[in-house]
UniProtKB/TrEMBL annotation:
Name of protein: Cation diffusion facilitator family transporter
Source species taxonomy: Bacteria, Pseudomonadati, Pseudomonadota, Alphaproteobacteria, Acetobacterales
Transmembrane segments annotated in the record for this chain: 12-35, 41-62, 82-100, 120-138, 159-178, 184-201
Domain Cation efflux protein transmembrane: 18-209
Similarity-based family: Belongs to the cation diffusion facilitator (CDF) transporter (TC 2.A.4) family.
Record key words, sorted: Membrane, Transmembrane, Transmembrane helix, Transport
Subcellular location per the Swiss-Prot or TrEMBL entry: Membrane
Length: 302
């Protein structure tokens, strides 16, 4: 199986795992709300419903992004993952709005929850499961360079913070008798979710707008060009972008005017191999130019 197929297969398994974990966590949180009647625990369960929908959306996006390039999409379908990430960010914001609405109602009519310790135990088990899964998704999304899996991990992590904050505030309710703590904690966590959702949407929209690769990746690309283009004189007009797990790199390479086409082509082959070894899956476009075209402001070649 080629590396790109293995990567997509891993991402699909992770997406199916997210859907399964989301259903299990949702069941536990609904049970915690049912035994307590707590608006904070209800809000926590509401946020997890969004996780289920988002996990399903990520599955669809990954299936679309796995399609090979065709006549209508010559650069592939990888950007479908970013649409999934934008959708998840919007869902996070929607969940936060719903939580704020429920918190306002409970603030206006406060009531002490029933069976608080049983509810905390059930919700705590769901939170631990989510924490382990979020760590796995974030680590895997970065390693596999999958924005859909990474966004899912960050989304699940917001659920972990939500549950942690809810449990912390909820634990004080039966001790103090302050019923208003329940909706107050729900409202505070909702504000944190809004911040996270805005960041998710901003990052995904930036990728859809063909934002350049991260600074550390760009530095690595420049280093490879500088070190591996022996025989050439200079590289300039370097442009980069990322689309899902694929990196696109374009630049002009200046070579001596007396160099043969075969020798120049060999330099390009060496550069492409070195860049793919550094970046993984990549589409690399190199435009050769004679020495007279040198701009003396690009990446000098050692």
């Amino acid at each position: 199986m080629p590396p790109e197929a293995r990567g997509m297969d891993r991402a699909m398994r992770a997406a199916w795992g997210s859907l399964l974990v989301s259903f299990v966590v949702l069941g536990l949180k609904l049970a915690a709300w049912w035994v307590t009647g707590s608006v904070a625990l209800y809000s926590d369960a509401l946020e997890t419903i969004i996780n289920v929908v988002a996990a399903a959306a990520a599955l669809v996006a990954l299936r679309i992004s796995a399609r090979p390039a065709d006549a209508d999409h010559p650069y592939g379908h990888q950007k479908a993952e970013y649409f999934s990430a934008v959708l998840e960010g919007m869902m996070v914001l929607g969940a936060a709005a719903a939580i704020l609405h429920e918190a306002y109602g409970a603030w206006a009519h406060p009531a002490l929850p029933e069976a608080p310790f049983l509810g905390m135990a059930i919700n705590g088990a769901a939170t631990l499961l989510n924490a382990f899964w979020a760590a796995f998704l974030i680590r895997s999304g970065r390693a596999w360079r999958s924005p859909a899996i990474l966004a899912s991990g960050r989304h699940v992590l917001t659920d972990v913070w939500t549950s942690g904050g809810v449990l912390a505030g909820f634990a004080l309710v039966p001790v103090t008798g302050w019923a208003w703590l329940d909706p107050a904690m729900a409202a505070l966590v909702a504000l944190n979710i809004i911040w996270t959702g805005i960041a998710m949407v901003r990052d995904s929209v930036g990728a859809l707008m063909d934002r350049a690769v991260e600074p550390e990746v760009l530095t690595a690309i420049r280093r490879v060009i500088r070190d591996e283009a022996a025989g050439a004189l200079e590289a300039h007009d370097l442009r980069t972008r990322a689309s899902g797990h694929m990196t696109f790199v374009e630049f002009h390479l200046v070579v001596p005017e007396a160099m043969t086409v075969g020798a120049a082509h060999a330099i390009c082959d060496r550069l492409e191999a070195a860049l793919r070894a550094e970046l993984g899956e990549a589409v690399i476009t190199i435009h050769l130019e004679p020495e007279a075209e040198s701009e003396r402001r690009g990446v000098p070649v050692l």
